[in-house]
## 1
Amino acid sequence: NAGVMQNPRHLVRRRGQEARLRCSPMKGHSHVYWYRQLPEEGLKFMVYLQKENIIDESGMPKERFSAEFPKEGPSILRIQQVVRGDSAAYFCASSLAGGNEQFFGPGTRLTVL
Amino acid sequence: QKEVEQDPGPLSVPEGAIVSLNCTYSNSAFQYFMWYRQYSRKGPELLMYTYSSGNKEDGRFTAQVDKSSKYISLFIRDSQPSDSATYLCAMSARDNNNDMRFGAGTRLTVKP
């Protein structure tokens, strides 16, 4: 029974490139959340999606960041024209019914050179 | 002032000790309280989930919530080296939680 899967686990990009992070939720889960974690800081909510819908993107920067969760396939967090400040661990979580019991993936560690 | 405050530690204890981890918060609307354990280079894992005030016990772990003081605790009895991890508190006002707020995490080391 696979848990939440994220890939790649590590991603290195140069400034100005695009970063694409993928998340496959647990089987049967249709609610996906993306968080960002900086060193010595807690997880910061970015966006909450259900299949084909963005429910809440209040934590996501208005520019350069976008997220989707298509009917088929994984959820994608896309960061365009990356800057050094985007370097962080990005975690995806999924839940069965949009409740507080979220299950986290192993994260993608993005490094921007 | 941050909504959720958590002492980052690090906290080092000998094996078998009782560990107390704490968070304070400022938003009185928070009703759901969670503790996550995060091993190095891994994703957070839900340990305890409580609603409103009171205690909840699960094996060696006990979660306590004191809403009047806006203070939550996680106790670990008979701590083991495998408990060495970062512990994150989290809380939200609603059950459909895109409003969950996390503490910065306390790094715990249990020495054999």
## 2
Amino acid sequence: EAEVAQSPRYKITEKSQAVAFWCDPISGHATLYWYRQILGQGPELLVQFQDESVVDDSQLPKDRFSAERLKGVDSTLKIQPAELGDSAMYLCASSPRLALREETQYFGPGTRLLVL
Amino acid sequence: EDKVVQSPLSLVVHEGDTVTLNCSYEVTNFRSLLWYKQEKKAPTFLFMLTSSGIEKKSGRLSSILDKKELFSILNITATQTGDSAVYLCALGGAGSYQLTFGKGTKLSVIP
């Protein structure tokens, strides 16, 4: 069964360092999402891509976060510089093209980030 | 102010019990309501509800949506220890299909 791949699974870094997370969606899925899930909370959308274009990044802290999906397939989320409050699980999800009635989002295993 | 409110936030039951998890929301213009199960990893999809009053069922789990009263429930009958997880409710946006999640209900099933 096709899965969303993410790496690394765990990342420990010191504050002010740069970190990057990678996501490879299910083959053929046009839409890709990055979520941040703080412990005890539900996931919150950071950025949504449709192919290589950003559909919504209104919740992305753009002073330190950036995301790209250059070829419309895999994607990278970067934080520079990392802050203590960035410690969280970063989830990537993908779904087929928009406007399909029964589509759902399929989540990857996540990257758990700890900033010291 | 949270748009998706789940209750209770945590629940402890014994194996064999039946539980009902609640999800209430404020948004009226949405395409679907989804339930996910999250163990110590990524959420896994359980149900997607789009129509009011139609129950969806999968084994011991079932869910229903009430668009008039703006809530959904997730029922689990004959609970097992493997049901222990956080159950997340999410709304799928009408236009962009973004998901807005609640904080989840942490269910613990003890033998």
